[in-house]
Specification:
By secondary structure, this protein is α/β, with parallel strands linked by helices. The chain folds into two domains: 148 residues, Alpha-D-Glucose-1,6-Bisphosphate, Chain A, domain 4 (2-Layer Sandwich); 295 residues, Rossmann fold (3-Layer(aba) Sandwich), CATH 3.40.50. It has 18 helices and 14 strands. Helix 17 links the parallel strand 13 and strand 14. Helix 2 crosses helix 4 and helix 7 packs across helix 8. The longest helix is centred in the middle third of the chain and has 26 residues. It is elongated. This is AB hydrolase-1 domain-containing protein.
Length: 469
């Protein structure tokens, strides 16, 4: 009996000391990305999925925090740390990105063997676009079935989010705001002067929507949209507008020869787009440039001065900062007018008539989705676009200007020093620009284009008295 007891104890001790059984977990998720090249798809994965954590229910802390493509990231609250191991630039059949988990964190670390966790994302050409194959592998000491299901769910969600992301337009495009929102024109717009509208940081070109019906009476409108997932450079933005000016110039020349009609081209830039308008005017033959609420002095504000720190913030924190600072876009008069019109049914003088009223309701219904901009897009634009736009309004850069300038600003702009900047640009611009100022009393950053301004009337007077066309 004593021997049996000793033998049983020995067996029990051996069982306790035996290492747990390690199981290999392999997960593969595939998605078809229609109309997308492997190159575009991988760039989207690196930007949206890896850098911004698109589709991942976690706070992403990037390393380095301000890197366009971080080499590592930590997912909070799981504490999982991942490192980008390899991005293949030369593969013939498929483009690959590899990553590894350098620290599984306290939760996964209970079961997942440290150093065993790797991931591969591959993109291969198909007839309709490309296929994404996302593979994850790791060794598990316990609960392998649970971690396999959890990984399939999380990777599947991230893959679905990327699939949705890449189907949205990413290239800049032009639209006519009147036809877009169902307001019929009177007559042929092709004989009218062309007005190219360049947006601010939001990229929507709808913020001046109250002005469009009246402007459409005198101009052929083309508004540029920079989609939320547009990751082009500032130069790409400028070149897109310059190319449109050049195309318009060719069409205008044809119109002049065929119809004996002069068709000048004007460019209007709002907020950050004012700097772009200056760059476009310096590189092309526009008849004049209109700067509305110029943000070329944005670096002199508290928010602008903190730009290098803001781009390092995690997406949720950056989104919170942007949301909390949105009050800077508004002004007291704008709020009072809105409340009064809700209470009395009063109509804007720029939107009188059933057709324009219907147009207004259609615009208002789409404003939330058109103005929505994820933190990842804000970060890209703050990092890549704001600096060059500010530089375009510097005293040295203004010396390249030859086109007439009209500068419109509100006197109560809390977002940027628009009035101060308007006066400075007028002072620093060359004499041949004949700069004209128009101030909207009491208007904030967004209020400068509400119905306290009749931009068509202001532009008509400027063209008649300064431009001459």
């Amino acid at each position: 009996m004593q021997r049996l007891a000793l033998l049983a104890a020995a067996v029990q001790t051996t069982a306790l000391q035996r290492p747990p059984v390690v199981k290999r977990v392999d997960v593969e998720v595939t998605r078809q990305l229609d109309g997308v090249s492997p190159e575009h798809a991988r760039e989207a994965w690196l930007d949206y999925s890896w850098t911004s954590g698109g589709g991942i229910p976690a706070l992403v802390l990037r390393e380095p925090a301000d890197a366009k493509l971080p080499s590592a990231r930590t997912l909070v609250p799981a504490g999982l740390r991942e490192e980008l191991a390899y991005v293949d630039e030369t593969a013939d059949e498929e483009l690959v990105a590899r990553y590894r988990v350098s620290d599984p964190g306290p939760l996964l670390g209970l079961d997942v063997v440290n150093g065993s966790h790797t991931g591969l994302v591959a993109f291969s050409q198909t007839e309709n676009g490309c296929e994404m194959r996302w593979e994850v592998s790791f060794d598990c000491r316990g609960r392998a079935g649970f971690w396999k299901q959890a990984t399939e769910f999380l990777v599947g969600n991230a893959a679905d989010a990327l699939q949705s992301y890449v189907t949205k337009p990413s290239a800049p495009y032009w639209f006519d705001p009147l036809s877009e929102f169902g307001l019929a024109r009177d007559g042929d717009a092709s004989d009218k002067p062309l007005l190219l509208v360049l947006p601010g940081l939001d990229g929507s070109s709808v913020t001046a929507w109250m002005q469009y019906p009246e402007l459409g009476e005198a101009y052929d409108l083309r508004c540029l949209v920079l989609p939320a997932n547009c990751r082009g450079s500032y130069e790409d933005w400028v070149n897109t507008a310059v190319e449109e000016v050049e195309k318009a110039a060719l069409r205008a020349e044809a119109s002049r020869l065929l119809k004996k009609v002069e068709r000048p081209v004007f460019v209007l830039g709002e907020s950050m787009g004012a700097g772009v308008a200056l760059d476009v005017a310096a590189r092309s033959s526009v008849a004049g440039a209109v700067l509305v609420s110029p943000a070329t002095g944005g670096d002199r504000t508290a928010l602008g001065g903190a730009r290098s720190k803001l781009v390092r913030l995690p997406d949720p924190v950056l989104a919170l900062v942007i949301a909390l600072s949105s009050y800077q876009l508004l002004d007291r008069g704008q709020l009072d007018t809105t409340l009064r019109r809700i209470a009395t049914g009063e109509t804007s003088p720029l939107l009188e008539g059933e057709d324009r009223e219907a147009y207004a309701w259609r615009v208002v219904g789409e404003l939330p989705q058109r103005l929505a901009l994820p933190a990842s897009a804000c970060r890209h634009r703050m990092r890549e676009w704001v600096g060059p736009s500010i530089a375009a309004g510097s005293a040295d850069a203004l010396q390249k200007q030859t086109a007439p300038l009209l500068i419109v600003a509100g006197t109560a702009d809390l977002r940027v020093p628009a009035e101060e900047e308007a006066r400075r640009i007028a002072r620093d611009a060359p004499p041949q620009c004949l700069p004209r100022l128009h101030f909207v009393e009491g208007a904030g950053h967004a209020g400068a284009t509400d119905d306290r301004l009749d931009l068509r009337a202001v532009m008509d007077a400027w063209r008649r008295e300064v431009v001459g066309v």
